[in-house]
Amino acid sequence: MQVTSMLSAGYLEPMMQGNSRVYEPEKTTQKTDQDKQAKEQEILAEEQALKAKLGSNAQVHTVYHYSMGADGRNYITGASVTMKGTEEQLNRVSGGVTTEDIHTKEQETREALRKEDQEHQDTQNIIKAEAEKREARRKKDKSDDQKDEQVDELKKIEREVIAHEAAHQAAAGEFGGGVSYSYTQGPDGKSYITGGEVPIRLKQGSTPEETLRNMQQVQQAANAPSDPSGQDRKVAAKAAAIAAKARAQIARDDEPASQDAEHPAKVAEGTPVFGKVRQEDEHNDPEKNGVACVLASVKELQLQSLIPAA
Length: 310
What we know:
Number of domains: 4
Order of helices and strands: EEEHEEHEHEEHHHHH
Distance between the termini: 173 Å
Strand order of the largest sheet: 4-5-1-6
Number of strands: 8
Structural class: alpha+beta
Largest sheet: 4 strands, antiparallel
Strand content: 15-25%
Shape: rod-shaped
């Protein structure tokens, strides 16, 4: 069995210090080296008294504590005395504590510190988990905001595409086909219209005039939306080119009639006009020359009405 005591000028209430039972010495001011020397004598005497109580069979180990005086000498100002012996021997000494009690107190202290550390760690884990939850909510809110922005943009595009293709269809009339749409899946899992197409036929007419009217309507249909696409402009340009050819054809067809109106035929009395008309007919076959030949046939009827009856 083992007991540890701290010696000083006298015994006060004990306190734990390391693996020993420590007795706090009196807080007295030692103003002179003579005071230090007196204290040293008291501690040494106290140590001898403890040894005498234990008897010669007990084991005593002393560790002295020093303080330097003004004269440069180290004076004993305290001592830790560890005593080993039988329970009967150790009971002769007042104060101190057994080694087993010290170990028990140390174990209790370590357990208390372990629990305190665990509680602190648990608290830190809770704080960390709450911070991670807040960060996750912040990221989710940001992600939701981005998704909402993307959905709003897809809805806007869908409205614009539907209006765009509807304008094509309304202006195209009989030259337009059914609208077809292309779709894009949004972040909400829904499909949104993001593209469209209305086929427009470049239909030639039976006459240049009809072709011109058709191409004018095709141009209007291609340019009907407020924001024509590049493909819309290509269709409009192609229709304009066909319309220009139709205008040129109309101008060529109108040229013979204009000349006849400016220079009407003059027929002298007694002139054999039928032979001349027949010669003109040979050069103006309606099956070969289209509108110009039809005009020539009409001219022949007009000349016949000018010849007096036989």
